[in-house]
Amino acid sequence: MKFKITCLIAVFFLTAVSLTLGNGLSLNSIGPKALGMGGAFIGLADDYTAVYWNPAGVTNLDKIQIAAFVTDVIPTSTYKFETYGIDAKSKSNHYISPNIAGYIPLMKGDLVVGLGAYVPAGLGTEWNGDELKNLTGGTAYEWKTKIAVFDISPVIAYRINDMFSVGASLDIHYGMFDLKRYAPLQYDETSTGMGFGGSVGLLVKPHKLFNIGLSFKTENNIKFEGTAKNPAMQAVGEPESDFSREVAWPIWFGGGIAFFPIENLTIAFDIQNSMWSNTEDSLITDYKDTLWNSLIGKDRIMHLDWKDAMQIRFGAQYDFSREFAIRLGYYYDPAPAPDNTLNILFPSQTYNTFTIGASYKLTDQFNIDFGAEYLMGTERNVAWDTNEPPRNNGGIHNTNIIAISLGLCYTID
Description:
14-stranded antiparallel beta barrel; 20 strands; mainly beta; 4 helices; Porin
């Protein structure tokens, strides 16, 4: 029993920070149009989500635009561990994120300014405690994580000439994170944090048959602060303590090409890379209560050992008419977390993702977009990590995710 408790405590202190970082919690395709095209959008970047994908693409918006879209992410995870007789399935919760954007062209459209407010990460997982009670001495506890990261990004873009456009944004991040788990007894943690970063982009149109795009996001540090509660600490001190934790959001960069081989057809290809290995080696949680710090000891050091993750994305759009278009896409999304840091509160799978989408122009001013994707996880059979304390959950892990996005854009002539 002591071994099991030690394992679970170690897993908690790992997952308490990693939830803000992995591809499994990112909304991989921001906006219904990009989502429907498999997120292959850096070389196209021709709608209101350009502020995220490639700020230079904002110059494609030659009229005032106001847009809003909402994305619903529905993950379902499974965990099997025969050693303890566990065959568990997470609840299929809905994680809904609202997003808005607005742009104003200036100087005959060569200079465009705007503002985007969107959710680049917003996921979670919740397990039935009864299905995991064999890990906790036969008593059921709550196992739940929920995270949302909200970005506000003022953006400016300039069309240098018919071939070259550049753009940049300031990215202001606000993160919220809740966690409930056994560690031992019922552990409950809530925290928020802020961070700052920036994005730059280049869009090149060398020929009417294709575009080339490059996009780069800086590393930024988010300092989370909150309160942790655990009645197990009552016997030796205070049952709760404030804490802080710095998390580095990694450098992200990518490139893309959008082809226009025939009238009404667009084909896009992107490569996007997150530099996890530069930032996610180990992280430290600092509890304000010195007794918490001393009792937890080396478990405050969270070993992640993450590796870089490169996504490969494809997408296509066909315009049946001026009013109606359909989209298809695919992307490969590798898991950044190695086996020795994988756990049930932070599912990290390699995904093969298939997407669809459509748009319809209701009037000259109103356009509606729809996108959906299915992230099909690759099963991972993981052995217990042999470090002391262990850093993972042994067993068979898998996660599948459904994401649906709907947007409405209003254009002012």
